[in-house]
Amino acid sequence: MPKASGDHVNPILAVGSVAFDSIKTPFGEASRVVGGSATYFAIAASFFTDVRIVAVVGEDFGANVEKVFGGRRVDVSGLETIPGETFRWKGEYGFDLNSRETIYTHLNVFEQFKPKIPAAHTSSPVVFLGNIHPTLQKEVLDQVQKPRLVAADTMNYWIDRTPEELTQVLKRVDVLLINDSEARELAKEANLVKAARKVQAMGPQTLVIKRGEHGVLMTRPGGGFFAAPAMPLEDVFDPTGAGDTFAGGFLGYLASCEATDDAALARAIIYGSTLASFAVEDFSVDRLLRLTKEEVHTRFTEFKKLTHFDIV
Ligand code: AMP
Hints:
By secondary structure, this protein is of the alpha/beta class. It contains eleven helices and 13 strands. The protein has helices at residues 37-45, 64-69, 134-143, 156-161, 163-170, 180-187, 192-201, 242-257, 262-279, 286-290, 293-307; strands at residues 12-15, 19-25, 28-35, 51-58, 74-82, 87-93, 100-106, 126-129, 149-153, 175-179, 206-210, 216-219, 225-228. Helix 3 runs parallel beside helix 5 (163-170) and helix 8 runs antiparallel to helix 9 (262-279).
């Protein structure tokens, strides 16, 4: 791990969903378990730095706030509880865990949500716009003062329904994390390299394209790419949240090391991949809640062995 905990002053402000998910995979089912983009992100990033969540839950979420975020470097003063039901999402995976079908998305309390950033958090140096309505992402950006780094995630749900709003947000984003199929859809371009260039032209200079079990491809601001594989795992139970967990490890590391040069970005990709590789080993956030810093460190070094070779 890069630094000892508790010593860092580069907190991340993270907006996104906090949810109840129902998930079906070929290996089992889980119903009404804790999920959400901000949830996975915050747990992962909190291994590296302080995270300030901006989100909303319904009164039904109850003791889950403490169960999931308690005892971690996660500030929940921006997590509102309002009357109504928590955001609900159901997804189903076939044997190809890289593709999933959304069975339903119930926005519930997110329909009336207006993000309110606590005054003490408006100067957060790093901002993560998790996967939610792009208008909400914009409202968060409007309330913060000159962050050093803005990263964002989105998904096909918003690319299809709110393309105009998304385009406006992208102009203000430095790093976009996106799936390969979503990058193609956003750019309206089948070739991934050309799609990446087109998305860069929309705003974000660094594009992190997540390719499920095939790993990650990142554009470098000056041109060129960095690629990393995903850890080959024997036990993959539930890919839900892998992308947000990746984002948490990636941005958490970048915030903690205060650098955004090529070498730091490459290490951040490996930290993101490391955290994501744990998230998929169990349903919901269960594996992340059991995860230790020692396990993160061990797997980070295994990643080096996975890709290292000598040129003779
Ligand atoms: P990932 O597998 O990383 O794409 O993230 C899955 C998480 O995103 C789940 O826990 C869902 O609760 C959440 N999610 C799914 N669809 C949406 C949506 N349209 N808006 C916000 N969050 C969503």
